[in-house]
Amino acid sequence: MSTQIDIKEVHWLLDIVQCIDVGVIVLDRQYQVEVWNSFMENHSGMGPDEVHGRPLFELFPEIDETWLRRKVDTVVQLGTRAFSLWEQRPYLVHFKSYQPITGQEDFMYQNVTLLPLSGASGEVDHLCLVIYDMTAAATHKKQLTASQVAH
């Protein structure tokens, strides 16, 4: 079994990260952006060249920095992933909602997964944030709740 990385596989993985319909941000331990996929570019209006090396909290001042730092510290210390659900915290970054069918929400509801990324030393030296658009599910749940209250 070869330990050499196949360059074709790297290209496939990069294509997948760029094309999937979730936000992918990789941060170093100083919260500076290293990776920014097309979902993030499309919803933020900022390209990878604009954000690379910049602190996440500078790009998105609406982020609750204390809360995110606490979450990240736990992920780094335990080496396990963590989650944030839209029901607990509606969004990490404030994006406009682009729901073509309903169009009822002003912003994108988001679930977020925080993944620890270890370097060659085995230490967690980067973090991956995966942002899922949960606006449709949030809209349906709110409508269901409203209809139950009305009856």
TrEMBL record:
It holds the Pfam family PAS_4. This is Diguanylate cyclase. Keywords: Kinase, Transferase. Gene3D superfamilies: PAS domain. SUPFAM superfamilies: PYP-like sensor domain (PAS domain) (SSF55785). One of its GO terms (molecular function) is kinase activity. Residues 9-79 form the PAS domain. The keyword NAD does not apply.
